[in-house]
Structures are given as C-alpha cells and as structure tokens.
Design goal:
20 strands, Lipovitellin-phosvitin complex, beta-sheet shell regions, mainly beta, Immunoglobulin-like, 309 residues, 1 helix, single chain
Length: 309
C-alpha cells in the first residue's frame, strides 16, 4: 500500500510539469467546454493504479469501475474570471488489494463532493481546476494544467484532440478529446514502468446541456431548424449568425446575458425555407458571455458567444 500511495503522490506532482502537445486544428476557436448553470455530464469510468516492491511481487493498488457525474451547481463572477462550482457524484465498484498485508477486498462507493473550476474571461478562456485530488475530481484532473482553454480550434467534425506526455517515473501519456458544444468526450491516460503503472479510461455517455446547440450525442428530427454558426466567435464589434429552416415560417433570434436577461432582438420575422446569414453588431453591450436563442415553430436552438472589447 505504501508503494501505491507513493505512486499517487508522484503522479499528482507531475501535473505541474511541462507537457508537450500535439493539436490538430482546422478552423476558428469553438466552445469545447460549455459551462453553464445546471449543465451535467455523465461518464463511464475505468481506472486503476498498481505499485510493486519488486518485479510482479509485493504489489498493491486498486481498480475502479462505474459512473461519474459532473454538474454545474453554482457560479460567481470576480473581476475578469468566473468561479464555477462543480459537483461530482461517484458510483463505483472498487477492487483494492495489498499483497504485503494479504489484503484483497471489493466494495462499492457512492459519494459526492464539490470543487471550484476557475475560468479566465480573456483570450480563449483558460480553465484551471481547484484540486488535484482524484477522489474529488477523477476525470477532469487534467484541468490542473495551466494552459487548457475553453475555446479551442477544432477539426471538421467539431473535435479537438489533445495528446501530451508528462515526464516522470513512470511517464504519463494522455489523449483527451473534446467536442464543440458538448465538452470532454474521452479521457485516456496511462503510465507504466517496471514497478509502477496506472490507467484511466473515461467516456461520455450522456450530456445534459440547456444552453448550447445540438451535438453528436442528440439526434434531431429532419424538419428541425439549425442554428448553424456564429462567426467570428469570440468577436469584438460584429459577428454573423447563420441559421437554416426547412419550412417557411416565423423566426425569432434574440441574445441573452449570462443571467438569462434578454439584451437584444437580432431578428423577428417571416422567412422562407433556406439558409440565412444575419449580421449582428452589439455596440452597446459590454464584454462577456452571451447566449443566442432561435425560436422556430416548437423548436428552440441556442448557441453561446463571447464578446471581447
């Protein structure tokens, strides 16, 4: 068990080290970590760590499997940053063992905890998690890296893939995948040496998002409208909002601030079926996060944008 605890301590320290990244990008930054009140992400999780006194002997560690839920339960604004309160609920089956103590046990965990996620409201919105404790934050632990941004460039499918290595004993390799308007969808992390090894595989099984557009995890009916894009985003003086509708009818597009207050009506009128690009110049609005809401028949589409002045 001492070896196992030592390994965890080493792994936690490594998160402050320099990492090398390989990021494939295709277009302008998009929101790959859509934070808003009441947003939730449900992950399936498999993780474990094992340390041995000698080769394959006197080993200790644990293997976990189950689900982890991340939910945004509160937020506060301080100057140029937002402090998001994140609740984590773990429902796990744990197999723990220690050969030096002849200990082997399987048990269940169902607990909850909270931590603060800091978002800087400048540039591409740097994100930093408050804690490095894997019990409190088992999947988003990589957010202790100080250069993970909420707005990232994505490929043609809306994905942003980060691959990095953290030097140490053992070297930790991670592949983390985000999807625009959805968030983290995969986290695969592993480290291996002769005496120490660990792994983590987390996959998004469901996202509950109320203020972003549809993603690959939710299917639309064929007659639904699409709030295509806001470009550029972030923007300073003006941006173009693109949408399409399959049948002629009334379309209303409005802007709301982060408190849910309506701040602008961008368009309100009857449109024929087709694709439209509407220019919006919010000269009277301060810098910050805003939500673009589109109403069409019984459908509601939402997108998030950032004004920087």
């Amino acid at each position: 068990m001492k070896t196992f605890l030592l390994y965890l301590a080493i792994l936690f320290q490594l998160h402050g080290n320099t990492v090398s990244r390989n990021v494939k990008t295709y277009n302008q930054p998009r929101d790959v970590f859509p934070l808003a009140l009441n947003h939730s992400w449900i992950y399936t999780l498999q993780s474990g760590a094992k340390g041995c006194q000698s080769f394959a002997q006197d080993c200790s560690g644990s293997d976990d499997s189950g689900s982890v839920i991340y939910s945004v339960i509160d937020f506060s604004t301080f100057g140029d940053s937002i402090w998001w309160s994140i609740k984590v609920i773990r429902t796990l089956q744990v197999h723990a063992f220690d050969q030096t103590r002849n200990y082997d046990s399987t048990y269940s965990i169902h607990d909850s905890s909270t931590f603060i996620l800091y978002e800087k409201l400048t540039n591409n919105h740097q994100l930093v998690a408050e804690t490095v404790n894997k019990t409190i934050n088992p999947i988003w632990i990589f957010l202790r890296e100080h250069n993970i941004n909420r707005y990232q460039e994505t490929d043609s499918t809306g994905s942003a893939l980060l691959s990095f290595s953290i030097s140490g004993i053992p070297t930790v390799n991670a592949t983390i995948e985000f999807h625009a308007d959805t968030g983290l969808v995969n986290n695969k992390t592993s480290g291996a040496s002769i005496l120490l090894n660990s792994y983590l595989i987390a996959t998004l099984s469901k996202s509950i998002l109320t203020t972003v557009g549809e993603s690959q995890y939710s299917q639309k009916p064929p007659n639904a409208p699409v709030l295509e894009n806001i470009f550029p985003n972030p923007f300073n003086s003006s941006s173009v909002i693109s949408f399409s509708i399959p049948i002629s009818d009334e379309v209303i597009v409005r802007a709301y601030n982060i408190l849910g207050e309506r701040v602008a009506t961008i368009t309100n009128g009857y449109y024929s079926a087709g694709v439209y690009n509407i220019s919006w110049s919010p000269n009277n609005l301060p810098s910050g996060i805003y939500f673009i809401k589109m109403n069409y028949k019984k459908y509601i589409e939402l997108r998030k944008c950032l004004i920087l002045k």
